[in-house]
UniProtKB/TrEMBL annotation:
UniProt keyword annotation of Transcription present: no
InterPro entries: KOW, Rib_uL2_dom2, Ribosomal_eL14, Ribosomal_eL14_dom, Translation_prot_SH3-like_sf
GO molecular function: RNA binding; structural constituent of ribosome
Keyword flag Acetylation: no
SMART domains assigned to the protein according to its UniProt record, in alphabetical order: KOW
Pfam families to which the protein is assigned, alphabetical: KOW, Ribosomal_L14e
Species this chain originates from: Kwoniella dendrophila CBS 6074
Subcellular localization: Cytoplasm
Keywords, sorted A to Z: Cytoplasm, Ribonucleoprotein, Ribosomal protein
One GO CC term, this protein: cytosolic large ribosomal subunit
Listed name of the protein: KOW domain-containing protein
């Protein structure tokens, strides 16, 4: 084994989400927080130009510290692509459908729903949990008596 092969094997990174043109990001700050956008152009090591035509994120320069990289990319997107091209590629790749079916998006939706719940909603949840606990307890006791 040559030294170049040995060093390349050692340098294999487990990191997979890179800042790149076509990377789908979750906006984490500002009025578009919680929406998906696509990196259209890399400005410098602190900012990128993002666009989210189907998710109502306007084309703007955005700092990386306020973006969360998702595992989704749009491979065929050229650098500096226009709004129409980004929209077409976004819809063709089916990114929004993939995102909505992911566990991450479902968790965020559940968190938002809990945050917006009223007192009555929380009360109903409390009663449902209480009745579920009671059903589980009864089934456990019945099973324990049957096995004994």
């Amino acid at each position: 084994m040559t030294t170049t092969t040995a060093t390349s094997e050692r340098l294999q990174s487990t990191f997979k989400r890179f800042v790149e043109v076509g990377r789908v990001v979750l906006v984490n700050d500002g009025p578009s927080a919680g929406n998906l956008a696509v990196i259209v152009e890399i400005i410098d090591h602190n900012r990128a130009l993002i666009d989210g035509p189907t998710t109502s994120v306007p084309r703007q320069s955005f700092p990386y510290r306020n973006l969360i990289l998702t595992p989704y990319t749009i491979a065929s997107l050229p650098r500096g692509a226009g709004n129409g091209a980004v929209k077409k590629a976004f819809e063709k790749a089916g990114v929004l459908e993939k995102w909505q079916s992911s566990g991450w998006a479902k968790k965020l939706a559940a968190r938002k729903q809990r945050k917006n719940a009223s007192d009555f909603d929380r009360f109903q949840i409390q009663l449902a949990k209480k009745s579920r606990r009671e059903e589980v307890r009864k089934a456990y006791v019945k099973e324990k008596k049957a096995s004994a």
